[in-house]
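Minutes, project check-in
Item: structure for the 102-residue chain
Input as provided by the requester:
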Amino acid sequence: MATIEEQHAAQVEGMKREIAALTSDLHQRNLSIASISDKAATAERHLRDQNEALERRRAEVQVICTIVTLMLFTDMNICDLSLDLSFPFMCFWCPKCGESSC
């Protein structure tokens, strides 16, 4: 039979192995969390860059639409070009020919 000291030593050794395994698992989880955090930060930067690019493009389109509108209302001869300048988000009316799109 094993003595009480041997049993105690075996229990302590088992606890040490369990602590080592838990420490290893914790370290692996920390690495996984760091990796996921890095990937999330990269994705966030990418989305922010895309959003800024889309905002610049939206501003460019808005400027172009304003220029086209000004051209339509300041130079009515544009109606003579027979261009279809109707946009799904804008409706132009030409006082020269009375049409909603020239």
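Outcome recorded: Residues 87-91 have pLDDT under 50 and may be disordered.
No further action items on this chain.
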